[in-house]
Please model this.
Amino acid sequence: MNNIKEITKEVKETADRFPRHEERILKGNYAASEAAKLCRVGFIPAYPITPQTTIVEDLSDKVGKGELDAEYVNMDSEHSVFAAAMGAALTGERVFTATAGQGLFYAHEVLHAIAHYRLPMVVCNVGRPSIPWNIWSDQTDSLAQRDTGWVQFYGESSQEVLDSVIQAYIIAERLELPVFVVLDAFYQSHTSENVWVPEQSLVDEFLPPKDRRNYEIDVEHPKAVGGLVQPEHYGKFNFKYWEALQKVEDLTNEIGKEFGEHFGREYQAVEAVNIGPETKTVLVTISSITTTARGVIRNHSDVGLLKLRLFHPFPKKSVLKAVESLSDDVAFVAVERNFMGDKSGAIKQELERAFYGERTNPIYDVYTGHGGKDVPPRTIEKIIYRIKNNPKEFTWIDIE
Model:
């Protein structure tokens, strides 16, 4: 009886924290599609590819039932999906779609165009690798798109995916930049979790209708788009784009705080866990591996965790602030569910850039979980043991 009373009390307290929400059990993909609906997207070009297919399938169902007032168009390839998304964004529509793996690679050319046209949109990528052919979790596909210029957020949970899509539209439309919200294949996309879904009116108060900027395509007032730009002007476009990217980190923290005040769940570009005077090692993670690491470090008072939510542009200021109290002999360990065809993984590369001229801490690279291989608590324990007892610059874990 006491247990029932305690559970009832806990449920009530949680509900009080999130008024004007409905608690539902959702897979990550359905959390993403629910977020797109709540953001009142107006155009959805779609092409199926495992493991993101249920995102666009669910949106098709919502449009078909009249639950979402949007144009939903089946395209003939992912390249066409992003080309259509670009065209719709040029007219001023709020655009959403989803992709994964080879679909994202196929769209690579158009990603550059969307970014450099400064077209705001939000796209969910459900991370999976390339060759050898594989449909399970990996972050190589999205991290390989760093240099296309898209903003990249990585969600740890279905709740964070839903909340990040809402925040991403604020950032995209205020700075006129495209944004990826990335979730891990299957560990997030097809796993059910408790998710607090806000009422439509609550989202409407936070995310206003998309403003027109007077550069949109208008059939009554024709204009050329994408014409040849002479060398003396090309750099000016890149400079303005560069200026906008410099604002992403601060705006992420600002919008994350405002989101917390409005919805009851605050977010920042990075999250520091168990980082303090006793810390000797810091694990640096993104997405679902973070959750496993959270549980493991409870048994290690000297191991901290640095979660990267914003990955591109890399949140240098937030990272340095999160670790400013640590001495230079604290070891940082980049846990890489990616392989960039280089000596080191994407996380270590970005950490080295951020630390250059600022900190001299050793940074170790650990490759694990590629192609969806599980990263259970014992793997995190192995990582901690090896760094403490036999540190190597690069380590591959559990590839037997």
Remarks:
- DSSP finds 15 helices and 15 strands in the chain.
